[in-house]
Amino acid sequence: MRKFLISALAIMLLSFSSTAFCSDEIKALEENELLKTELQLAKNPALYFVFNFKDKKIYLKSRGIVLREWKMDKASFWGNPFSLKTLQLLKKTTLVPPERKVIKPGDDSAGVEALELPDMPQTYTLFMEDGMSISVRSKPPEEWKPKLYNFRYTLQEYITHPLLTVWYKYKKQPFVAVDILFEDKAEAQALYWSFTDGTTAIMVNY
């Protein structure tokens, strides 16, 4: 009986070691793939983003150097699973896009008004390549009615996105929907301001 228990324990230890080794090997391969992907973007001075959903971090980089960092409070997913994607931002949409005042030629009384961070929306959608959309929002102010504010996102989370997932799977078309929540509205506004159309982003989900 004692020999049997020792043999069983040895087998369990070997199995655990093998599993741990495989897990470490997979992690190393994933990290290597991410480094190779980022190296291609870091060869030129153009800005690019890294969305690390596992760590809930977003990085704005140039030549591998972090210029700005965002901390996501929450990130939810629907659609096709993915581990690593490199995509360009096609467009940004929001209910009330920021607009400069129209200045008529020759009107010296009107000064040039620059758009600043407080003018940026705190709720918007980023449409990426390959059928990915990213809904960005921040927590509502205390004076707002949370139930009314969250109704859209509750509908989106439990009805709209699940139905779209089934529909696109039936149509055999790519579909990934991400919902990002920031604690501070200034973080959402800064991301909108920084992330311009045509900018490349690495999406990491492992």
Shape: globular
> Largest sheet, if any?
9 strands, mixed
- Which class in CATH terms? Mainly Beta
Number of domains: 1
Sheet-strand content, in percent, reads: 25-35%
Total DSSP helices: 3
By helix and strand content, what is the structural category? alpha+beta
**C-alpha termini separation:** 43 Å
CATH topology: L,D-transpeptidase catalytic domain-like
What's the alpha carbon Rg, rounded to whole Å?
Answer: 23 Å
The percent of residues in helical segments reads: 25-40%
| Overall CATH architecture | Beta Barrel
Low-confidence stretches: 8-14, 16-21, 109-113
What would the average pLDDT be, to the nearest integer?
81
For the largest sheet, list the strands in their spatial order.
Answer: 3-2-1-9-5-6-7-8-4
Order of helices and strands: HEEEEEEEHEHE
The total beta strand count reads 9
The protein's oligomeric status is single chain
Give a short synopsis of this structure.
The protein is built from three helices and nine strands, in the order H-E-E-E-E-E-E-E-H-E-H-E. It is of the alpha+beta class and 206 residues long. The chain has a single domain, classed as L,D-transpeptidase catalytic domain-like, CATH 2.40.440.
Fold blueprint:
Blueprint: H1 2-42, E1 48-52, E2 57-62, E3 65-71, E4 74-79, E5 84-93, E6 124-128, E7 132-138, H2 146-171, E8 176-182, H3 185-194, E9 200-204
Parallel strand pairs: 1-9, 7-8
Antiparallel strand pairs: 1-2, 2-3, 4-8, 5-6, 5-9, 6-7
